[in-house]
Every structure is written in structure tokens, then in C-alpha cells.
């Protein structure tokens, strides 16, 4: 790719330091958002919280795909924010409904399925850019992906319903797992 030959940063840039700083920033922002996410879900509701986080992810993906500029590195720090915003609220709702004896297996399978789906998406997208050599071609593919994500978000917006109180409350006593 021509992008690999682009001289975006001086040769003396301390790459490991910048990479570590970037990882620190992304982790810190994600942790701060996650620490408030359950409270925000209770204020705004599950539907708004999930759709808002997914919508932010779509906007971020489109913004990152639009330019080849160092500012994209700053935007990439925000890449983990959608997951940080929805992971704890969803776990708060799901975990009490799973018996303690199956909870670790369930959460492991949930994590594995998410990682496999994401890797399949990346594998599929790699075919979209395999023959493209310029940033304009790659940007076009990114915009098409962003458009598809925006369309999927719109379908979720139009087909989702507000959660019923029993959907976001505690599991019925007969379904709660014993606490240890």
C-alpha cells in the first residue's frame, strides 16, 4: 500500500512511547465512562444508552475513515467508548438471570462470540480493500462500511422498543442465583 510508504511522522518519533500513551488514554477514557454507565442507563434507559453508544461508534468509524491525518490517532483513543458505555449495563441486567454455576461459561462464550464476529468482519472487510492502493479507494470502502453501519443502526432505532420495567429490573426470585 502507498499508505505504508507515506511519511506522516518523523523517523525519530518514539513509537513505543506514543503507542503506550495511546493505550493509556483509551483505557482511561473507557474506564471512566464504564464507571458511570450503569447510572446513565438508569437515567436515560437501556434503549437510549445502547442506541446512543452504537450511534457514537458509527459516527466515530465514519470520522476515522474520512481522513489520513494524525488527528485520526486522537479519535482512535475513543474507539473503545461504545463498548465501555454498554458492557456494564448489559452485564448488570444479564448476570443476575444466569445461575452462578453457569455464569463464567456464559460470559466466556459471550466474549468469544463477540471476538469471533469481529474477526469475521475484519476478514470480510479485508477483501474490500485488498486490491485498493490509494487512500481515496480505501476511504470509499470505509464510507460504504459506515453507510452500512448507519443503515443497521437506523433499523435498530426503528425496530427496538423501550424496555419494560421487568426487563431492566431484578430477575424474579425463582431465577436469581444464590449469592456466595
Blueprint of the fold:
Layout: H1 2-5, H2 15-44, H3 46-66, H4 71-76, H5 81-94, H6 100-129, H7 135-159, H8 165-168
Helix pairs in contact: 2-3, 2-5, 3-5, 3-7
User: How many individual β-strands?
Assistant: 0
Helix content: over 70%
Order of H and E elements: HHHHHHHH
> Biggest β-sheet: count, sense, barrel?
none
What radius of gyration results from the CA coordinates?
Answer: 20 Å
Average of pLDDT: 80
Low-confidence stretches: 170-180
Give the percentage of residues in beta strands.
under 5%
**Backbone structural class:** mainly alpha
**Span of the ends, CA to CA:** 55 Å
Q: What is the number of helical segments per DSSP (H or I, 4+ residues)?
A: 8
Structure characterization notes:
Helix content is about 75%, strand content about 0%. The protein has helices spanning about 1-5, 15-45, 45-65, 70-75, 80-95, 100-130, 135-160, 165-170. Helix 3 (about 45-65) packs antiparallel against helix 5. The longest helix has 30 residues, at about 15-45. The N and C termini lie far apart (about 55 Å). Residues about 170-180 have low confidence and may be disordered.
Salient structural properties:
180 residues, mainly alpha, disordered C terminus
Short description:
This protein is mostly helical and 180 residues long.
Amino acid at each position: 500500500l502507498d499508505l505504508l510508504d507515506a511519511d506522516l511522522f518523523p523517523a525519530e518519533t518514539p513509537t513505543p512511547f506514543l503507542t503506550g500513551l495511546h493505550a493509556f488514554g483509551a483505557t482511561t477514557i473507557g474506564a471512566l465512562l464504564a464507571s458511570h454507565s450503569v447510572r446513565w442507563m438508569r437515567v436515560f434507559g437501556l434503549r437510549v444508552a445502547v442506541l446512543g453508544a452504537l450511534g457514537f461508534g458509527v459516527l466515530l468509524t465514519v470520522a476515522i475513515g474520512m481522513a489520513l491525518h494524525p488527528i485520526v490517532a486522537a479519535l482512535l483513543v475513543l474507539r473503545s467508548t461504545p463498548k465501555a458505555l454498554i458492557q456494564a449495563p448489559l452485564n448488570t441486567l444479564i448476570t443476575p438471570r444466569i445461575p452462578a454455576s453457569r455464569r463464567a461459561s456464559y460470559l466466556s462464550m459471550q466474549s468469544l462470540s463477540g471476538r469471533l464476529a469481529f474477526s469475521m468482519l475484519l476478514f470480510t472487510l479485508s477483501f474490500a480493500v485488498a486490491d485498493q492502493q490509494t487512500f481515496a479507494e480505501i476511504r470509499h470502502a470505509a464510507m460504504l462500511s459506515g453507510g452500512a453501519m448507519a443503515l443497521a443502526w437506523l433499523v435498530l432505532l426503528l425496530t427496538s422498543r423501550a424496555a419494560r420495567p421487568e426487563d431492566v429490573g431484578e430477575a424474579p426470585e425463582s431465577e436469581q442465583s444464590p449469592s456466595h
